[in-house]
Design goal:
The complex is a heterotrimer of chains A (191), B (314) and C (934). Chain A has 191 residues and is an alpha+beta fold. The relative contact order of chain A is 0.14. Classes of the chains: A alpha+beta (191), B alpha+beta (314), C alpha+beta (934).
């Protein structure tokens, strides 16, 4: 090129059944062989909470837990995680009750524009699942793959520390504040 | 971003993988191996040298062993970094790769076979069309190299893996397997000086594991990485040094991110009689990085002196 | 306060033991109001001002809103009202809008920097199965742009493409794969033109300027806007005997780096109205531009602002891709969704201008800033965007917080063949501010005084006017400097740390809302309007067009309404997404939302409050001014047991006057001078900030690590300290990125080399210093409850603070941002060579021996401190104009007192030879003044 088009002449990928347990719910969908997990989660399972920020592993907005391990869904082939348990931000709350990590992000300013929040929440929850008493260094390492442009990370680290205290039983979770009261489309338009 | 169309093959065993590779080769189909995917997937999304078939190694058991003397190619960098069994230089280098999230996916094999990088090359298809492509991914146009124009012989894209230099100074060997069986060679012989050829892997061949000498636990040293951010960034230059505890005459030095391959500097070390400053100067002289990463080559070249000096600190 | 005044319900001596009299314990009858809290809360005296009988200290004096404080939420750390949606993944951003039957749009972009579009053939694309609609520039010939004076954008190229990535055509297909394939099938024939990448070349005459402005075109250059401003005596600059600083700076362009890429969904509904979903900071301007480009009236368009995944100025222009989606959707008759790749975000850009800035400062024998000159050449890229304003801001926002003997500014913005620069957090002020603050550090060093004392002795007081006529009201600069000096232990560290460690200071000054709205039609249009409506059960709905982009504007608006009406925050709902339901608001830019919207909301809430108190007064047979409004209850000041519930008063009011609705509006007061450009930088209030940064420099590698920052920001009044701190720390992060690692790199061929988050280096958690946010409350007389902005101003000081700290650490100044390690290392190496030093650790680092002036400064700042405190509290209401420090009479304009004083917005012919780089734009004539011009 420039001027001549460059069109790949490769035939389309075949479609296969993709099945996984997403947030405790079994999903079986048809996905192309070359599908990326992020696309399958967003387009086929309705997990729009999984965000696409950079598409190359440098922002962490698409972080999900795969069998308990935090991983970048934009860098994971969908068919490689067939049969796995996947937790997205939508799966963190216990029914209508926010998980401590969600509650602490809200209360300590861990979320501003909120776009990176799902990734941070999943990465921090994965940390707290294995370590309810993380040092500041351990927290930094756990979220070093997540990019936040709003908060400067400090209030995020504080949120995680506060959530860790709840996990350790040193602080109370606020019970009245629950997800059921969160309007899914707060101030949303009629669609 | 959309992946280019390809068929993903998911063998369950090494032999199945080899069979698939062999069949594809017989049919004249091109393919790539995918391990962790952290290098391949972004490149594919940008339509960089994508192939119609991709064989995944993720479903094969037994490729992620981790011990002092052996590490499987599918061992995740996170596990290597966290492991107490791995040689500390190697786990330290692993812990410095990209970010904690990328390390969950990234593998040793992928890191060692990392595609070379260049800011004229690691761009989207639209971007590359605006520079009329480049030698490394010319899309059939016969485009010139954009780093050093008027030559389309050599590709000078930079190898920016972190772990190779540490394994080199510990004298690791690589175990490769392919349709024609297995072969073993020292890691220092694995790489080939060209940004496109990169290494000795033959079509259909992939890396199985690396092994380290039995006495590797007696060796000490360190790895130093130059980067602007302590997360995400590839090394702009890196140096590893190792020596047998108490015996500085055994000193080995290797560098990365300065040219198309990581390199062990045996000549420079032996000619300098172990004098670290002399080694630094000798490596400085023999290394000529080019302008294709974020920091300018003159700076990276000068920094190699600092990095080697620090890597050799006891 | 009268002596029998009972502030706290139930706190008088005659408390009855049956509990019923304790107002704070009264239960509400069902159905009640207030949801989860069945009992009235006691008044929170900690959050009621002292002058109103509470415990909240008021060091800056009274505020007109004090008497409406109810202690409900203002001043309390309040989670964002939409936080739950964000932490549960339910917040809906641009790409999350999935309408039934949607198709996917894709944009075809220019592969050339600069070219004429000869022809476009879309046949092959249209023939591809799955392609529903294709569009090119001929479908939308109308120009648009965020500023009415510089409309220079098209939805797609009409005649020329102006940068790599400029829009040429667009397609919509049933899926992304087909859309991408179709985009590749569109054949465009170009005639390549000579591109310009270096802004310096933009000052020269060329055959084919990037845009053509007709009679107003400056020569045949690529100068889009030039500015000249002169106040005072230029000759004062020529006295360089005492201390003179001349700093030549280069600033690389930076991108907003918001995490959410642009995405838009357009849908023409069954009534033929356009429903456009877009993450916009400024939906109203997009609304106007859409109407122009689509040629439909505004009322046929509903702009729905989705959640915005970060804006920072980067989502405030009307964007061509928004037009494209609407055009495609109209053609297709189906909803069209376009989502950008990260690279496309960089191609749209609108980030901070790459700049060449020269600053000259000189100080006189008293260490007063007698001469002050700025020359700023800014690289606007391919389009005007906000550039007209940016061109002014680079100069005029430097006229405070210091009192200046004279002020001279020449600025020019040029078009180049790069993605357009635009507005970014700290719009236009960041780069010059860095240059000035570093200049002052240098002046302090030359005068052998402490740079903090130099600043403290040269500050403009509260309630004063700057040299260009900006009206400063509240001013917390002095407290900010004092607090960071104390917090950082400055006096023990400055010029005393070992090599490789350093500490530095920087200040900031920023507008809190812009005095002139961008669109001033109709005349005297309010800047912000807020409607309130109250349901039967007492819930309040706030309708505002203020765009919450994560800064928490909805929360701030909800807070002030809740505060005035003394309602729990959960009873206040903000509806701000849809232009159909929101009153017009100018959007989230210029740090205007809290100041203007909250003021409008307070106005509306006060109207409701009055109606409620009137109703309650009638029911209780008491005059309304004797009633107290507390948590869902209105009662007699002197006996809280005499009262009615909020709901009863509300129902009474509704019986009497019908539905309870109110509308509030905010307009800026008249202000500012009359010279050309006087309106640029005018604001109803200004924020002030001072930061101290501590750094460690690896002298072998040049790598800088910022370890600690003490960040004091005067936001007037922190309505929500949690959010203010979040803004301060977040600003530090963004500014730190610009000073240490972020840059848009245009390589040898003019291509943007790093349009991705791997190579565009936004600091990670590891690069963040430990930030100590310090909130200064100067209580602005016109701000809502005293508040001013906190979103942009806090970014400014971090850059110079770090640059100054680096100098303190290694004794070398680098005037080229970002301070990437290679530049720092090169500067160190150069110095080592010059001083013949082998080991960088032996480099001499700056030390400070105070001169005689130091004592003089301390004395002067002590006097000024008293002056400032009196003025802040309005104990001294006399006029204060910039220049008093230099002996001018504040009651007279300076030009009447001093013959040499000039006010000029155009250089006279004798000055033309002596102008700086940007100033040379003035050597060209406008076409209309040229014989035989094009």
């Amino acid at each position: 090129m420039v001027g001549e088009e460059h069109v790949s002449m490769i035939p389309a990928a075949t479609s296969k059944v993709w099945s996984a347990e997403v947030n405790g719910q079994k999903h079986e969908v048809i996905a192309k062989s070359n599908s990326i997990l992020l696309d399958v989660l967003r387009d086929k399972t309705g997990c729009l909470g999984v965000k696409r920020g950079c598409d190359m592993g440098t922002c962490g907005c698409c972080t999900v837990m795969i069998d308990g391990v935090p991983r970048l869904s934009c860098l994971t082939m969908a068919h490689e995680v067939n049969g796995c348990e996947i937790t997205t931000v939508e799966g963190l709350a216990n029914g209508s009750h926010l998980a401590p990590i969600q509650q602490c992000f809200a209360e300590h300013g861990g979320s501003q524009c909120g776009f990176c929040t799902p990734g941070f929440l999943v990465a921090s929850q994965a940390l707290l699942n294995n370590n309810a008493n993380p040092t500041e260094k351990e927290i930094s390492c756990a979220i070093e793959g997540n990019l936040c442009r709003c908060t400067g990370y400090q209030q995020i680290v504080q949120s995680i520390q506060a959530a860790a205290a709840i996990h350790r039983g040193e602080a109370d979770a606020v019970t009245s504040n629950n997800a059921a009261h969160s309007d899914p489309h707060p101030d949303g338009p009629e669609m | 971003m959309l992946m280019p169309p390809f068929e993903l093959h998911q063998p369950k065993s090494v032999s199945e993988a080899c069979t698939i590779a062999k069949e594809l080769m017989l049919a004249g189909d091109e393919f790539d191996w995918i391990a962790g995917g952290t290098d391949l997937i972004p490149n594919y999304k940008w339509h960089i040298n994508s192939k119609p078939h991709v064989i995944s190694l993720a479903g094969i058991d037994g490729l992620s062993e981790i011990s002092m003397t052996e590490i499987g190619c599918m061992a995740r960098l996170h596990d290597i970094a966290e492991s107490e069994d791995v040689h500390p230089i190697v786990s330290d280098a692993a812990s410095k790769v990209a970010s904690s999230l990328i390390r969950r996916n990234a593998t040793l094999g992928g890191n060692l076979c990392l595609d070379t990088r260049c800011f004229w090359f690691n761009q989207t298809e639209e971007w590359r069309s605006s520079i009329d492509w480049c030698h490394k991914c010319d899309c059939g146009t016969g485009a010139d190299c954009r780093v050093i124009p008027n030559q389309n012989e050599l590709c000078v894209a930079t190898y920016q893996g972190d772990i190779a230099p540490t394994l080199m100074v510990l004298d690791a060997s690589v175990h490769l397997i392919g349709p024609d069986g297995t072969r073993v060679m020292p890691l220092v012989e694995f790489y080939k000086l060209d940004g496109m050829t990169r290494n000795v892997l033959q079509p259909g061949e992939f890396m199985l594991k690396i092994t380290l000498p039995d006495d590797v636990a007696d060796w000490t040293g360190s790895y130093r990485k130059l980067r602007v951010r302590d997360s995400w960034d590839f090394p702009e230059a890196g140096a590893a040094a190792a020596w047998k505890k108490g015996d500085r005459t055994t000193l080995r030095v290797a560098t990365t991110a300065l040219e198309s391959i990581p390199r062990r500097h045996d000549t420079e070390v032996s000619e300098s009689n172990g004098d670290v400053k002399a080694i630094c100067d000798a490596v400085f002289k023999s290394t000529k990085p080019v302008n294709n990463t974020s920091l300018p080559p003159r700076y990276r070249r000068n920094m190699i002196k600092v990095l080697i000096k620090r890597a050799c600190e006891e | 306060m009268s002596k029998d005044y009972v502030q706290q319900a139930g706190m008088n001596k005659d408390v009855r033991v049956d509990g019923k009299r304790v107002a704070g314990k009264l239960r509400f009858n069902p159905p009640g109001s207030g949801g989860s809290r069945p009992e009235m809360a006691e008044r929170d005296l900690e959050f009621i001002p002292e002058l109103e009988g509470g415990n909240e200290p008021q060091p800056a004096g009274a505020h007109s809103h004090d008497s409406f404080r109810t202690g409900t939420t203002v001043g309390k750390r309040t989670p964002l009202v939409d936080a739950n949606a964000k932490v549960t993944g339910q917040a809906w951003y641009g790409d999350d809008i999935r309408l039934p039957n949607e198709i996917i749009g894709r944009i075809v972009r220019s592969p050339y920097h600069y070219a004429k579009v000869k022809s476009i053939d879309t046949t092959k694309a249209e023939e591809l199965p799955g392609v529903i609609a294709v569009s090119t520039g001929v479908d939308a010939p109308s120009k648009f742009g965020v500023l009415p004076v510089t409309k220079d954008e098209h939805a797609m190229a009409v005649e020329k493409v102006r940068h790599v990535g400029d829009l040429v055509a667009c397609v919509a297909a049933t899926d992304e794969e087909t859309a991408r394939q179709a985009a590749a099938l569109i054949e465009v024939e170009y005639e390549v033109l000579d591109a310009i990448h270096d802004p310096k070349k933009g000052l020269l005459d060329v055959d084919e300027p990037i845009h053509w402005r007709g009679p107003y075109h400056i020569g045949s250059t690529n100068v889009q806007k030039r500015v000249f401003q002169e106040f005072g005596d230029r000759e004062s600059l020529e006295d360089t005997t005492k201390a003179f600083h001349n700093g030549k700076w280069k600033f690389m362009g930076v991108n907003h780096g918001f995490t959410e890429p642009h995405a838009v969904v357009a849908h023409w509904d069954s009534n033929g109205r356009l429903q456009l979903y877009t993450p916009q900071q400024v939906p109203h301007y997009a609304h106007r531009a859409l109407a122009t480009v689509l040629e439909v009236p505004m009322h046929q368009i509903n702009v729905i602002r989705t959640f915005v995944g970060g804006g920072f100025g980067g989502k405030s222009d009307p964007f061509p891709h928004e037009m494209c989606a609407a055009i495609l959707a109209r053609k297709a008759g189906r909803p069209v969704r376009i989502t950008f790749d990260r690279e496309e975000v960089f191609w749209v850009n609108r980030g901070r201008h790459p700049s060449h800035i020269e600053v000259k400062i000189n100080a006189n024998d008293d260490a007063k800033i007698s001469g002050f000159e700025i020359d700023a050449l800014i690289d606007g890229g391919g389009f005007a965007s906000f550039g007209h304003v940016t061109s002014y801001y680079n100069g005029v926002l430097a006229t405070a917080p210091y009192e200046l003997g004279s002020f001279h500014y020449t600025g020019a913005r040029v078009w180049t063949n790069k993605p357009a620069s635009g507005a970014m957090r700290g719009h236009g002020a960041v780069n010059t501010r860095c240059a000035i603050e570093v200049g002052l550090d240098d002046i302090a060093e030359k005068l052998q005084v402490d740079p903090i004392d130099l600043r403290l002795a040269n500050l403009l007081p509260p309630h004063s006017k700057t040299i260009t006529g900006f009206r400063i009201t509240s001013n917390g600069m002095r407290q900010a400097l004092e607090r960071v000096r104390e917090g950082s232990n400055w006096d023990e560290k400055f010029r005393k740390l070992p090599i490789g460690k350093g500490i530095g200071i920087g200040c900031g000054f920023f507008i809190s809302g812009s005095g002139l709205p961008i669109h001033w039609d109709p005349h005297n249009f309010p800047h912000a309007t807020v409607h309130l409506q109250i349901d039967m059960d007492g819930g309040v709905t706030v309708h505002t067009g203020a765009a919450d982009i994560g800064q928490g504007s909805s929360t701030a608006v909800a807070q002030v309404v809740a505060e005035v009406l003394a309602l729990p925050l959960e009873m206040v709902h903000v509806r701000s997404h849809e232009s159909d339901t929101s009153p017009v608001d100018l959007g989230s830019y210029s740090s205007r939302v809290t100041f203007m919207n909250a003021n409008a909301a307070i106005g509306a809430a006060l109207e409701i409050r009055e109606k409620l108190l009137n109703a309650a007064g009638e029911m209780l047979e008491l005059p309304p001014e004797k009633l107290v409004l507390n948590d869902r209850r209105i009662y007699f000041k002197k006996d809280p047991t005499i009262g009615v519930s909020y709901l009863d008063a509300l129902h009474k009011s509704q019986e009497d006057i019908g539905a309870l609705i109110a509308s509030g509006a905010y307009r800026t007061p008249p202000m500012g001078g009359v010279h050309k450009g006087a309106a640029a930088g005018l604001a109803p209030a200004y924020s002030f900030s001072a930061y101290v940064a501590e750094v460690e420099v690896d002298v072998d590698t040049g790598l800088i690590k910022c370890t600690d920052v003490w960040a004091a920001h005067d936001c007037g009044k922190a309505l929500n300290p949690l959010a203010v701190e979040g803004q301060i720390i977040g600003s530090c992060h963004m500014g730190l990125g610009q000073v240490l690692s972020e840059q848009m790199v245009y390589g040898r061929t003019g291509h943007l080399q790093n349009p991705n988050f791997l190579e565009y280096k936004i600091p990670s958690v590891h690069e963040m210093p430990n930030v100590t946010p310090i909130i200064i409350e100067s209580c602005d007389p016109e701000g809502p409850f005293g508040a001013k902005e906190a979103g942009e101003g806090p970014l400014l000081p971090i850059l110079p603070a770090v640059v100054n700290a680096v100098y303190d650490a290694i004794g070398v100044r680098v005037n080229d941002l970002p301070l990437t390690p290679d530049k720092v290392w090169a500067a160190i190496s150069k110095k080592m060579k010059r001083e013949k030093i082998d080991d960088a650790r032996d480099l001499p680092v700056p030390r400070l021996d105070f001169s005689e002036l130091q004592k003089k400064l301390i004395k002067r700042s002590a006097e000024h401190k008293i002056r400032d405190s009196r003025r802040q509290r309005r104990e001294d209401e006399g006029p204060y104009l910039n220049g008093v420090l230099f002996g001018l009479d504040p009651t007279l304009p300076p030009e009447e007192q001093d013959e040499t004083w000039k006010i000029s917005v155009k250089p006279d012919s004798s000055q033309l030879d002596n102008l700086g780089l940007a100033g040379t734009a003035w050597t060209k004539k406008e076409q209309r003044h040229m014989e035989g011009g094009k």
